[in-house]
Amino acid sequence: MRKQDDRQDGLNARSGKQEMAWNEPGGNGDNNGDKDPWGSNRGNRGNQGPPDLDEVFKNLQKKFGSLFGGKGGGRSGGNGVSAGGFGLGIGIVIVILLGFWLVSGFYKVEEAERGVVFRFGKHVDTTQKGLHWHIPSPIERVEKVDVTKVYTIPLNSTMLTQDENIVDILGTVQYRIDSAEKYLFSVRSPEISLSQVTESALRQSIGRSKMDYVITEGRGEISIQVKGIIQEIVNNYGTGLTIFKVNIQNAKPPEAVKDAFDDVTQAREDEERFKNEAEAYRNEVLPKARGASARMREEADAYKNEVIARAEGEADRFTQLLKEYKKAPKITRERLYLDMMESVLSNSSKIMVDIEGGNNLLYLPLDKLMERSNSTDATSQKRAAADILRDIKQRGANKSNQRARIDGLRSRGAR
């Protein structure tokens, strides 16, 4: 080292330059002299040199002390006061920040929610409704889960039926979160898992059904089957989901064969319409036919009862008449004859009488006689007709007696 210094001094001497230390006492403080390479003039010291680190720290301490309420005094007592003010300010800031940090740990859980508390990513607690507090982030965090809201995922799939036809299915699946812990921890993405499970269950149910059944009346039953399959699978996975409803809104064939299936559907609808019309006609005709049948039965029963009653009455009358005939045969015959003639001739307005043994035909204009009668009662007409018949019969009897008398006389004369 000493040889290198001697060599350097020799080089400086040759070049005519003379080196001087920075803080050498030879400096006179003029403007043309050498300056402090740190770029600062020490006017009060008269010497140039590197800055004092203690002085730099003291200046910074003064500035922070004045910022937090400290007073910058002289060099003798100012340093202690500035250090105390700086420490007090830092403490106040720390307390305020700590207070804000602690207050940020309060959170509120609504009635429809559950609060899941994580500590360094691990589940430590599940809170119910109300105001709660947890250790603020980054130590703990809270995730709120709505357990009453009904969520919906869409369905849009192309399925193969049992009869090897393709059908497009459109619908939705509605579900609720039953357990917040299982929902967050059991499955990485519950919605995606539920969508995949739904498609699998729907494919299973559609694959067991024919296309006509799927696109017509089978959608309701298929929805019930799919719901049961989905619920069983998500329960096995422990997803914490409850399937609320499966809606199959539309089941239709692909666009390429849509026209042909529309014709089939229209024919099926026409068939159903004709069945409904026939059913309506049957419901209209059958009651009328039943009513007519009941009326005819009642009329037949009434006629039967009437005929039976009339026959019984005729039989009773014949029995009574037989008794009278046995008592007086001639009188009974006359009475029967008169009753029959009255019954036969009661509706006749003209009567022609052929009197036995006479050449004249007796004509009785009953209509003219009835016109002259003051009474128009039917009973009076019958009585008048009976009187006339009785008179005619009496005349005939007289003629017969007269003829018998003549015949008797003739027979006697012949003897």
UniProtKB/TrEMBL annotation:
Main localization (coarse): membrane
Segments for region (Disordered): 1-55, 374-415
InterPro entries reported for this sequence: Band7/mec-2_domain, Band_7, Band_7/SPFH_dom_sf, HflK, Membrane_HflK_N, Stomatin_HflK_fam
Domain Band: 104-265
Comp. bias regions, Basic and acidic residues: 384-394, 404-415
TM segment ranges: 81-103
CDD domains cross-referenced by the UniProt entry: SPFH_HflK
Subcellular location: Membrane
GO cellular component: membrane
UniProt entry keywords in alphabetical sequence: Membrane, Transmembrane, Transmembrane helix
Keyword Transmembrane helix: yes
Family: Belongs to the band 7/mec-2 family. HflK subfamily.
This protein's name: HflK protein
